[in-house]
Amino acid sequence: MTLTKDFTQKLYENFAENTKLRAVENAATKNGLLSSLEVRGSHAANLPEFSIDLTKDPVTNQKQSGRCWMFAAMNTFRHKFINEFKTEDFEFSQAYTFFWDKYEKSNWFFEQIINHVNMDDRRLKFLLQTPQQDGGQWDMMVAIFEKYGVVPKSVYPESQASSSSRELNQYLNKLLRQDAEILRYTIEQEGDVQAVKEDLLQEIFNFLAITLGLPPQSFDFAFRDKENNLIKFEGTPKEFYSKFVNVDLSDYVSVINAPTADKPYNKSYTVEFLGNVVGARDVKHLNVDMERFKKLAIAQMQAGETVWFGCDVGQESNRSAGLLTMDAYDFKTALDIEFTQDKAGRLDYGESLMTHAMVLAGVDLDSEGNPVKWKVENSWGKDAGDFKGYFVASDSWMDEYTYQIVVRKEFLTEEELTAYESEPQVLLPWDPMGALA
Asked: Would residue 311 show up in a list of annotated catalytic residues for this protein?
């Protein structure tokens, strides 16, 4: 229907006569909507006490970048390092993996352009919309670790571009779109595509080295543990990974909860055009129901190991307090608005997807072993929230807005492992399970 003047006048008068809504209007226009709707009781119900509490290490800070998936992965290794070598604190260089991820994503983008030169317009538009970005998924992080190793943060420190990546991404994507046109023209003219691509990659490498710094191929490193023992290292980043991380990444699998009709449970999935390192293992997920999903996460924490997980962190999130809880804000009482979409509906209609990766560092279980609330290690620095950078997520929030965990294969049943290792269903490039944290 057309919005007539009379219809809009009726809406205007209905609002003007509603004294409750006028009171909320006064509060929201002065203090902001969410601050006006905040529920005090949600704080008391989510105090940071947990029956399983794996770490109190100082949190890290990704600053103005989208590297949460890297921070989350390296935080899981970092806790292991701190415990094994009895150090006060330690960080792996997130800038180092950032460099190689940008480099590899550029090559991945070129390969998609070259190998799918006759792709349909929607797929081409999808690739060109964001040739690369900061975000990623667990299997993409594995690809970087296996190929390039890791280094301490002191060996390859932060740069302006790694700490605030907007400018870097703007001009790298500008280059990549231009390069896509060059490659497609070269193919059309039956030119030497490989030679052209190599020249373009040199330009990309130079740009990354200038903005992020040239990463080390070998280095010396030394540190003292809590007992003042001096520990020295000399070698390559891959040798450093082998000595100080020594985690077999093939032991870990990505488990998702996507309760949509197109993704039956206990089957494996991958996503078209999703990856970073050409030749690395595919990004692959096992879809399970939420009850099983949480049991897997708890099993790994009961075994003493934190859990990488992906979620939609901005939903029902009280960032200033460090709370992720479904009762954070009261829209119904104040505004007569109720959000009724379920998890599947939010995925199908574009309301929610994975936007952020963090670490499950603890869980509070009731007397029957059921989760009540979860300890979340974030990467927004110690001043985010009320708990020195750690967040608390209610169990109901986890049900609604958590989409991915990474657990060791040993916690899967035989049937689940068989399903994971089976030929995956390939999802469309824009499927929400292809979202990058």
From this structure: no
